[in-house]
């Protein structure tokens, strides 16, 4: 994705996964972090009982069954309006892209997309009821986390209090698309550098922090806190609050090719986190209270992200702007990018209509949703503790399920 290359998930809850929507220190050190939002409990809609095959590689292989009528889903008018705007923005990609989930074809989306272009906001809910049907992918059991666009203290130039470099793409970093060498390796890339005539792994986090990039990469800005920039790398995009009060937006450019290690898992395994300290805020607090040990733990994550300055809003995997409270990251092998998804969760803030406009390294498998909450303290408080379970119902153009059923029946004859 453009906004987050290493799927931002609730670190305190995923712990071993790639990511963690960790709350960075506010730009004003005297201010206080908002507490993790206490969820309001809700009773999710029970998924339809099915026995999906194990090891399915996409939604078509996992199997789909018809879900509840869309008119019966508790979609609020505000959610429908936001989802309509996001869906309308995603339509060109839906009609153009090859659907890795195996569920839809570009032409399937044409009628709904044509209708979306003329629908008024107050008819948004009726639009989804008229043009879509809900389906359940696999067993329908969903797990949702949250991410947001962080804002941390930074400076365009090095000055007192701002001495953590934020690097742009190194000049000696090589990216190789392995699919050009073998059809079996389509979609796979490696990154490295040349050492004499050999391609070797690129410098890891420790080597970079110890100066390996000197003369090899531009420094586009300077951060005030190594913990902040560490977690902004996990997010993959964010805002730098500059000393004069202005904002500089930076986004993911590329990565060093090293594997990601979730430091939350290491901290838990080593007994470093006390009960009640396993929230994102608790993990950040521990790292700041134990700077030397914290630095060593962060260095065990060898992955390192390089940034570029952005002039517009954060972008998702479709190259489109993502919007708080409606955009979500999903696995495109199970949810077509650009498609609406209704999430019925055990907490009210996660329940609603989302549009899959992003992806993430840890967002893998059927019914795995990472909800985007925008920027600011409110978004930080919600995303920081988001962990919801329930059911997911994918919204597909009407007639898709009948076509898939007919194709499946024809294939077994």
TrEMBL record:
It catalyses: Exolytic cleavage of the (1->4)-beta-glycosidic linkage between N-acetylmuramic acid (MurNAc) and N-acetylglucosamine (GlcNAc) residues in peptidoglycan, from either the reducing or the non-reducing ends of the peptidoglycan chains, with concomitant formation of a 1,6-anhydrobond in the MurNAc residue. Transmembrane segments: none annotated. One of its GO terms (molecular function) is peptidoglycan lytic transglycosylase activity. The keyword Lyase applies. GO terms for biological process: cell wall organization; peptidoglycan catabolic process; peptidoglycan turnover. InterPro entries: 3D_dom (IPR010611), MltA (IPR026044), MltA_B (IPR005300), RlpA-like_sf (IPR036908). Residues 1-19 form the signal peptide. PROSITE patterns: PROKAR_LIPOPROTEIN. Its EC number is 4.2.2.n1. It comes from the Bacteria. Residues 151-308 form the Lytic transglycosylase MltA domain. One of its GO terms (cellular component) is outer membrane. Keywords: Cell wall biogenesis/degradation, Lyase, Signal. This is peptidoglycan lytic exotransglycosylase. It comes from Sphingomonas alpina. The lineage of its organism: Bacteria, Pseudomonadati, Pseudomonadota, Alphaproteobacteria, Sphingomonadales.
């Amino acid at each position: 994705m453009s906004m987050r290359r290493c799927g931002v998930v609730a670190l305190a809850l995923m712990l071993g996964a790639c990511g963690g929507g960790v709350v960075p220190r506010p730009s004003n050190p005297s201010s206080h972090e908002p507490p993790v939002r206490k969820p309001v409990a809700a009773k999710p809609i029970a998924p339809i009982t099915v026995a999906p095959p194990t090891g399915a590689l996409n939604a078509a292989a996992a199997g789909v069954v018809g879900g509840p009528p869309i008119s019966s889903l508790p979609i609020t008018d505000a959610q429908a309006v936001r989802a309509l705007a996001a869906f309308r923005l995603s339509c060109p990609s839906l009609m153009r892209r090859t659907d890795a989930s195996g569920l839809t074809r570009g032409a399937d989306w044409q009628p709904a997309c044509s209708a979306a272009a003329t629908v008024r906001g107050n008819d948004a809910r009726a639009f989804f009821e008229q043009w879509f049907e809900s389906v359940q992918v696999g067993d329908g059991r969903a797990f949702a986390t949250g991410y947001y666009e962080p804002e941390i203290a930074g400076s365009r130039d090095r000055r007192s209090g701002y001495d953590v470099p934020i690097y742009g793409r190194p000049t000696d970093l090589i990216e190789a698309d392995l699919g050009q060498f073998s059809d079996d390796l389509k979609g796979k890339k490696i990154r490295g550098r040349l050492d004499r005539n050999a391609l070797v792994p690129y410098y890891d986090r420790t080597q970079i922090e110890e100066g390996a990039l000197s003369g090899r990469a531009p420094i586009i800005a300077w951060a005030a806190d190594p913990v902040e920039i560490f977690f902004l790398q996990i997010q993959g995009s964010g805002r730098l609050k500059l000393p004069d009060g202005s904002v500089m937006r930076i986004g993911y450019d590329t990565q060093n090719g090293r594997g990601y290690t979730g430091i939350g898992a290491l901290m838990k395994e080593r007994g470093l986190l006390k009960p009640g300290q396993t929230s994102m805020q608790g993990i950040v607090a521990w790292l700041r209270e134990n700077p030397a040990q914290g630095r060593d733990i962060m260095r065990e994550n060898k992955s390192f992200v390089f940034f570029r300055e952005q002039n517009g809003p954060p972008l998702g995997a479709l190259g489109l702007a993502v919007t708080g409270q409606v955009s979500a990251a999903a696995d495109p092998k199970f949810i077509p990018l650009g498609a609406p998804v209704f999430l019925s969760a055990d907490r009210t803030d996660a329940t609603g209509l989302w549009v899959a406009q992003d992806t993430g390294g840890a967002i893998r498998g059927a019914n795995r949703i990472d909800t985007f909450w925008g920027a600011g303290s409110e978004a930080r408080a919600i995303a920081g503790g988001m962990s919801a379970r329930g059911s997911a119902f994918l919204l597909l153009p009407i007639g898709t399920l009948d076509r898939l059923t007919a194709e499946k029946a024809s294939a077994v004859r």
